[in-house]
């Protein structure tokens, strides 16, 4: 059986290894706890699974607040739990403050102190785009759809003969670095009337949708994330790639680190699929090529078949998104060539920690937050040979919340419970209630959280 490749230079700053994968993050050994400092801000969730928008927040106000550090740390936690957070109308946010906020969400959430903002490897390339004011900044990556169109016009072989596979757009930022990005902050300076949306997909939830036995196997794997294009571009342009790039470990021009397929998010302590799919993931280590292809296609298919795990941003001028690359993939929608109007964005990225998988880290189920283990009654405590005949059941009277889908989120369960004073959920009448008004009467025999399973 082929062996899994050792995790290269990643060993420099983390703890022990298991299957060649580091198992801890010394700079943030335990998950962080939200302090409540953002509770005064209105927000709405983009979907039950991923994304949150704070429609009134101005990042500049947060930076100026007397308890700015506490609030930014709480933002780092919310971003890491929800995957991505949207802000609107950041018209007064300049590049310096955007960089400052991006840097602070990293440092205040336990990023190794030697790391900083990412420097794009080919910042020296004369073909690079400038900022809207004509300047450049080594920590800011500029996107510009009009410039992109011109580049494509010079590339005759990009003329499509068949529809493009947009699944190829999914990626996590800077995965080609030994120490990839934790947080990215993209602000859209200019937007076309429509088009150019960005999507984010929850790696936590994709992990949770894989069977426990297959998850266990994936947790033993690493993947090579090779991006040779930077070295060849630098050679062709006659310049050196930038080095270091936001971390003392991000040096040189090899761009072929090995990252774990499943990683722990240092902020939440939850497991997420990481280097299992995406633009920069080029090979699952130690497998035969058809096995490598099969696993990467399988994970990518989980992403493209699970649109309930996806948050979509319809950009407006001066809108911004901040996300945690450890637990989400993102993908741009390349449809701006169909409309008049430019799409100009500026992105900063913080460099996080060397990816690791802590065997003690938990799934993205929220039960640990919402369920009190003190209420657990072990079956064995019912006495030897206990049956339901011998048990003394408790009868509860109250509202039953009929569900039209599996209810596997404890947070969502608690929200509905509060709003409707529901004492339980039931989905036996799913699909019938709308057609045939009826009352569900049934003994409750199941969970309404991520513990739900057939075996029970
Ligand atoms: Fe990206």
Automatic annotation (TrEMBL):
The entry lists its GO molecular-function terms as:
2-oxoglutarate-dependent dioxygenase activity; metal ion binding
Any one of the GO BP annotations: nucleoside metabolic process
Stored SUPFAM superfamilies = Clavaminate synthase-like, Purine and uridine phosphorylases
Q: Which Pfam families does this chain map to?
A: TauD
* UniProt xrefs under PANTHER family: ALPHA-KETOGLUTARATE-DEPENDENT SULFONATE DIOXYGENASE, TAUD_TFDA-LIKE DOMAIN-CONTAINING PROTEIN
What keywords sit in the KW lines?
Answer: Dioxygenase, Iron, Metal-binding, Oxidoreductase
Question: What family does the database annotate?
Answer: Belongs to the TfdA dioxygenase family.
Write down the species.
Lentithecium fluviatile CBS 122367
Record protein name field: TauD-domain-containing protein
The answer to whether keyword RNA-binding applies is: no
Residues in TauD/TfdA-like domain copies: 45-334
What GO CC annotations are associated with the protein? cytoplasm
Cofactors, names only: Fe(2+)
């Amino acid at each position: 059986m082929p062996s899994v490749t050792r995790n290269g230079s990643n060993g420099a700053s983390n703890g022990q290894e298991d299957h060649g994968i580091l198992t801890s993050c010394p700079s943030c050994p335990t998950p962080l706890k939200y302090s409540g400092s953002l509770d005064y801000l209105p927000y709405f969730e983009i979907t039950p699974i991923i994304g949150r928008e704070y429609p009134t927040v101005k990042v500049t106000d947060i930076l100026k607040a007397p308890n700015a550090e506490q609030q930014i740390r709480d933002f780092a936690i919310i971003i890491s739990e929800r995957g991505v957070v949207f802000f609107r109308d950041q018209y007064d946010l300049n590049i310096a403050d955007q960089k400052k906020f991006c840097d602070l969400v990293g440092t205040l959430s336990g990023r190794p102190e030697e790391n900083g903002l990412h420097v794009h490897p080919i910042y020296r390339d004369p073909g690079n785009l400038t900022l809207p004011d004509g300047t450049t900044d080594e920590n800011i990556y500029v996107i510009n759809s009009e410039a992109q169109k011109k580049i494509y016009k010079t590339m005759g072989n990009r003329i499509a003969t068949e529809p493009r596979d947009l699944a190829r757009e999914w990626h996590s930022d800077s995965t080609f670095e030994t120490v990839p990005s934790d947080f990215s902050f993209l602000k859209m300076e200019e937007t076309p009337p429509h088009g150019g949306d960005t999507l984010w997909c929850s790696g936590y939830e994709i992990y949770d949708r894989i069977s426990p036995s297959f998850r266990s196997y994936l947790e033993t794997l690493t993947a090579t994330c090779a991006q040779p294009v930077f070295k060849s571009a630098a050679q062709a342009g006659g310049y050196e790639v930038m080095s270091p790039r936001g971390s003392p470990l991000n040096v040189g021009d090899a761009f072929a680190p090995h990252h774990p397929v499943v990683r722990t998010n240092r902020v939440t302590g939850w497991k997420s699929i990481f280097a299992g799919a995406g633009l920069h993931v080029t090979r699952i280590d130690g497998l035969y090529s058809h096995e490598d292809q099969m696993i990467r296609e399988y994970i990518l298919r989980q992403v493209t078949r699970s649109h309930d795990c996806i948050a979509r941003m319809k950009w407006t001028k001066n809108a911004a998104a901040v996300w945690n690359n450890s637990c989400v993939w993102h993908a741009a929608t390349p449809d701006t060539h169909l409309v008049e109007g430019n799409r100009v964005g500026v992105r900063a990225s913080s460099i996080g920690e060397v990816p690791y998988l802590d065997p003690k880290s938990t799934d993205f189920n929220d039960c640990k937050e919402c369920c009190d283990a003190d209420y657990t009654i072990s079956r064995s405590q019912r006495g030897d040979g206990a049956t339901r005949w011998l048990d003394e059941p408790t009868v509860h009277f109250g509202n039953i919340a009929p569900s039209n889908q599996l209810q596997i989120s404890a947070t969502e369960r608690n929200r509905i419970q509060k709003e409707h004073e529901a004492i339980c959920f039931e989905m036996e009448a799913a699909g019938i209630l709308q057609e045939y008004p009826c009352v569900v009467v049934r003994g409750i025999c199941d969970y309404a959280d991520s513990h739900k399973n057939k075996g029970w």
